[in-house]
Design a protein that fits this description.
This protein is an alpha+beta fold. It has 21 helices and 25 strands. Strands 12, 13, 19, 20, 21, 22, 23, 24 and 25 form a nine-stranded antiparallel β-sheet that branches. A five-stranded mixed β-sheet has the order 6-3-7-8-9.
Length: 651
């Protein structure tokens, strides 16, 4: 292979090789390529594809790096993977043969590590400068034709809708009748039994779940999707999926005791499709969320939003765990770029990335993505192990981005007017993060994981979420408290029998949560959504008001927050009675810490040589600086001062 490549210059403007696919007399002729380096060529096309099999239904050997097919490059034999081979055959059969192409597996000398590092560092530039990108989903199968024909029909329905109908809100029975009338037109039996299953299979193609395809898709200006002989533009695909997404909208009637849903009504229209809709729960986000997030690309680069780029790519697959970081670097600008080096140990890539983001962003925002313990044993607990798919959504905080909505200012101030203090030092065999922290008190109670919560039968949205809303975790805590001999929870004033649905009346002698001077149940409900709400008037995460009257009703807005934030979190209580929304990994005797410069308290686990970082937490009643500013009616129980902060090692 060394005869195929001449070294590329690495100074000044990015230099690349381009290839031309030579014409053939027949479809079964050998594939021959001409590979050149000519800096004067300005127009070229790029290919976005996956190296392994395009779908699980294809032969497993397509995933084997040793399973290759032979082509010729500049007269020399060259081995490539089967999916790329199928793409080259398609291009040769459908293009003029004059096009110049950049395809990573061929245009980069994969055996030259220095060249690979340099070219990968400039991948975003290469795709941004290309005139067109062909997204190759792989060869077609028996369902591909139905998927492409159906999506174009559904997309026409979507494009024909008015803007009001695209944003339809089902408010009453009349709205529901109008909507179902249209649904009968848009979701004909053929679509339900053929198109939707075909689209589900199409969206499960591996291109939609690989790490590198995110950058290629975000950066490319013009692109076309191709699956075998079938093609479409991105608008056709997203239009059809937006239509199907809207048909999944849950209809919530005014009477919560009579739950109903648009989805169920649609299922009743055509029997035997319930599984189809269940599958859509996974398939639709694969497409529509990728489409929505494409609109972030300017903001990513302008505002250096590498963290949300890493969060997107973390959920995707990569053969090399380093690519969970390297494939995101082209989407954001940093003053000091993170080095691309495939010779660097994976642990050092992850440690260096976390450290760089703490230093450059001037915040601990990145730590919201930590999961305990890291999968790689030599990754310290404060560094994000991007190889491990985290199912926990970070709490909203400054720099957090959710679709197009960006949070520019902190939502919480547990340690107001403090500045970030972070140092890094070698500590034993790992690198330690050194911070200024106040160690408050240990956890004495943790609830069950939501996945183990007994479902509540009268389901409004989700049986387990309904159980939490109705006080499942709070009841567990009260049962625990009742079994304690000393019952020493200073911050909870115990009154008569608790009625969690009865508004708090100070004269009734009910249960009171001292830090916020509200009923125990109201404090609980605010705690299990981190005291934020998704505002309808301004699509944005906002803090609740102190009364929280409307928000705490069992509304769709409340369940939205409950659904997001309870994933892999538990309700916990500290020694003196602070309510905590903590990572599911939290255990008894873990300690609450207030850290200078952090928007959230931390949960730490003491060890012989330092502390393990378990995760960020929400602690009800201290998130607005109440420990320091005298917000409570009574003084804070411990009277914390600046002298209570000390340097601690997170390892």
């Amino acid at each position: 292979m060394q005869n195929v490549y001449n070294p590329l210059p690495r100074g000044g403007r990015v230099q690349i090789r381009l290839l031309t696919i030579l014409p053939a007399d027949g479809p079964n002729d050998d594939i021959e390529l001409s590979l050149i380096h000519d800096a004067s060529i300005r127009f070229y096309e790029t290919l976005s594809y996956t190296w392994g099999r395009p779908h699980p239904s294809f032969p497993p050997e397509w995933d084997n790096p040793k399973s290759t097919q032979s082509i010729t490059v500049n007269g020399y034999p060259f081995e490539i993977r089967p999916n790329l081979f199928s793409a080259l055959k398609h291009i040769r059969e459908t293009k003029s043969g004059q096009e110049r192409w950049w395809i990573d597996a061929i245009c980069i000398n994969q055996n030259d590590l220095a060249e690979k590092n340099h070219q990968v560092r400039n991948m975003a530039y290469i795709y941004r400068k290309s005139g067109h990108t062909l997204i190759w989903l792989g060869p077609e199968d028996s369902t591909t034709k139905a998927a492409f024909e159906g999506m174009k029909t559904l997309s026409k329905y979507w494009n024909a809708r008015s803007e009001n109908l695209k944003m339809v809100q089902i408010q009453d029975e009349e709205d529901k009748k109008k909507y179902l009338k249209r649904a009968k037109i848009e979701l004909k039996p053929k679509h339900m039994t053929q198109t939707i299953p075909a689209l589900i299979k199409l969206s499960s193609r591996s291109w939609f779940e690989r790490a590198w395809t995110v950058q290629e898709f975000f950066i490319s200006g013009k692109f076309q999707l191709q699956c075998g002989s079938h093609s479409c533009n991105w608008g056709d695909l997203t239009g059809s999926y937006h239509l199907l997404e809207q048909h999944r909208i849950r209809y919530k009637p005014s009477d919560p005791k009579s739950p109903d849903s648009i989805r169920q009504a649609l299922i009743d229209m055509e029997s035997g499709i319930s599984q189809c809709y269940k599958d859509l729960d996974y398939a639709i986000p694969q497409v529509t969320q990728l489409h929505l997030k494409r609109g972030w690309k300017k903001r990513f680069y302008k505002e250096r939003l590498l963290i949300p780029a890493l969060m997107i790519i973390r959920t995707r697959k990569a053969a090399n765990p380093r690519d969970k970081v390297f494939s995101a670097l082209g989407l954001a600008h940093l003053d000091t770029p993170i080095n691309v080096d495939y010779d660097m140990p994976v642990e050092q890539v992850y440690i260096g990335t976390t450290r760089r983001l703490i230093e450059e962003c001037g915040s601990f925002q990145i730590l919201g993505n930590c999961q305990y313990p890291p999968r790689f044993p030599r990754v310290p607990t404060w560094a994000v192990d991007w190889s491990d798919v985290c199912r926990r959504d970070p709490f909203p905080q400054k720099g957090y981005i959710d679709f197009q909505f960006y949070i520019p200012e902190p939502l919480y101030h547990p340690c107001p007017n403090s500045t970030l203090s972070a140092r890094f030092a070698q500590h034993g065999q790992s690198q330690a993060l050194i911070v200024n922290a106040l160690l408050m008190e240990p956890i004495v109670f943790t609830s069950t994981d939501i996945n183990q919560v007994e479902p509540y039968s009268n389901d409004l949205v989700n049986p387990r979420l309904t159980a939490l809303y109705r006080g499942q975790w709070l009841t567990e805590f009260i049962d625990f408290w009742s079994g304690q001999s000393d019952r020493n929870f200073d911050l909870v004033e115990r009154g008569g029998p608790i009625d969690i649905f009865k508004p708090h009346d100070p004269s009734s002698g009910g249960w009171i949560y001292t830090p916020s001077r509200e009923s125990l149940y109201t404090a609980y409900r605010r705690t299990i959504v981190a005291d934020v709400q998704w505002s309808k008037d301004s699509p944005y995460w906002l803090r609740t008001d102190s009364e929280a009257k409307d928000y705490l009703h069992p509304s769709m807005a409340y369940y939205h927050g409950l659904n997001i934030f309870t994933r892999t979190r538990v309700f916990a209580v500290s020694k003196s009675g602070f309510m905590i929304f903590a990572p599911v990994e939290a255990e008894i005797d873990d300690v609450i810490a207030i850290v200078k410069g952090s928007e959230h308290p931390w949960i730490l686990r003491p060890t012989e040589s330092g502390f393990h970082f378990i995760g960020q937490a929400y602690v009800h009643g201290i998130m607005d600086g109440e420990l320091w500013d005298g917000h409570w009616e009574d003084p804070p129980p411990n009277g914390y001062t600046e002298a209570d902060f000390n340097e601690i090692f997170i390892i």
